[in-house]
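Minutes, project check-in

Agenda point 3 was the complex the collaborators sent over. CS summarized: two entities, 582 residues total, and the question is how they sit relative to each other. Sequences were read into the notes so everyone works from the same version.
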Amino acid sequence: MSGGALPIGASLQTAIAVEGLVKRFGEVTAVESVSFEIRRGELFGFLGPNGAGKSTTINMLTGLARPDEGRIWIGGIDCTRNPKAAQHLTGVVIDESNLYGELSGFDNLSFCGALHGMRKAEREARARKLLESFGLTEAADRRFVAYSKGMKRKLAIAAGIIHEPEILFLDEPTTGIDVASARQIRQLIADLRSRGTTVFLTTHYIEEAERLCDRIAFIVSGKTVRIDTVEHLLQPVKQRHVVQIAYSGSNGDVQRKLAESFPDLRFQILSAGLIQVTADRPIPVGPLVRFLEDRGGEVAEARRMRPSLEDVFVEITGIEADAMRKEKEKSGGGGAS
Amino acid sequence: MNKWIAFWNILAKDMRTYYLKPPNISWGLIFPLAWTGMFFIKSGSDAEDMLTLLPGVVAVSILFGTTSMLAVTVTFEKKNRSFERLLIAPISLGLLMLAKTGGAILFGIANAFVPVILALFLVDLSSVAWEAFLPAVVLIAIASTFLGLLIAVAVSEVFEAQTFSNFFRFPMMFLCGLFFPISQLPVFIRPLSYIAPLTYGADILHGAVYDANVMPYGLDFAILFAFCVALFAVSLRQIKRKWIA
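CS then shared the predicted structure for the full assembly.
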């Protein structure tokens, strides 16, 4: 333990503590008074849309940016003034696969081990082991530049953990990669957590955060609007009933007509031909289907939905889930399938 | 944590991925050869003139070998964000940048010996004061590399690094007394000569090769060393200000 005193409530079990973090870029305030604590061994999700301040926060925590205000403790070390002080405890995987294109996968891992002071025999043995567990043994001698996007991301994660850090920062680890690789990476993250590594994960995939994280912070426009466990976050929507109905036929003023006929249900047109029905009691699907078909519509599917973190996120942040989906599409795949 | 493992591996990685690549080796050989040949022909092929040309050719070879290489490699790594990997490594920024510049310094020193080896076959170098020549070569390489670092911090694109390097290098070739004395320059230009580190390095080389230094060695070395320290300190300050903002 060194540097300034930890914030109130923090203990030896605190892996990361952040208090009143602010970062400005000229007139723009990218991060505005962000505070949180992460316990050792916890998988903490930092969830928000693009431009919410996730990467800026992770940059300040890893020493790639200096906060304008606030304080940072990592592993009990005050890193506010000296971001290098705790870098021996951390591993970082940024949102781009920034390894060396000219080096092979094996050499990249070995080099990253050397950056953390690992001796040759130790880092090479660890590199081989990681390549094997990440399914990259056959590509070990191939130059990084020739790797696919998914392979690049997996190798970047391997490079981030080659020195077995106590704390791992993962910035958008599954953005822009294929579904199979994204799934494999999620499994790797879960494995790291089960081995006791503290993981700070930023993502804009709500389902990914829900599936992986112990606790989640919602960040919007540089401010954390809610921090809680997934279970607590889901509590308010657990009793909620949701049905999505896919049908063909004119939308017209179907939403208004449905609302008039079923006043105790809430209706939302998600997209052309897709209606979401919400209620605090079980929803009678039959009458709804008949109502639509009587008005010339053809119902293709009516599905009961499990209330999800997405609903909570929309409720708390006011950001439509659709906007998050569009970001997902724009960033090129992956997803939390 | 053994930070020297990191230091050595950064240096070795740069040597392998940048400086020992065939295009750079050929540049390191061809450039000094071309300069030597050009001046040799211009001077009327008198072998003894080689001796007076040697300091200038050595200095130019170092200057061109180091500045652009470092500026380009650092800008390239900054652009593709692999430089961030170094910034998050648990070694001090000073040691990191020394490792990063070490490859260019060694490359510059190696470049300096291409014309020297060539000259060995043409003229008698037994009168050269190697005890002044060698440290001067090292200090010129360090100062030129740190100048390249300062350029790298000032630009964001690789092509800008090349352009900006030339903005400094070509005037220095004529201002620093490499091929003709500073005293032959117009009076109003001469102050510019004395704000360029190469002037002091070239003066030591002129003295070491054919006893024609204008200033005492001690002063030349002190100023050249001060330039190295100042260029490195300013570069580090700029890196902290711009890259870890």
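Noted in discussion: The radius of gyration of chain B is 18 Å.
Follow-up: revisit at the next meeting once the mutant set is ready.
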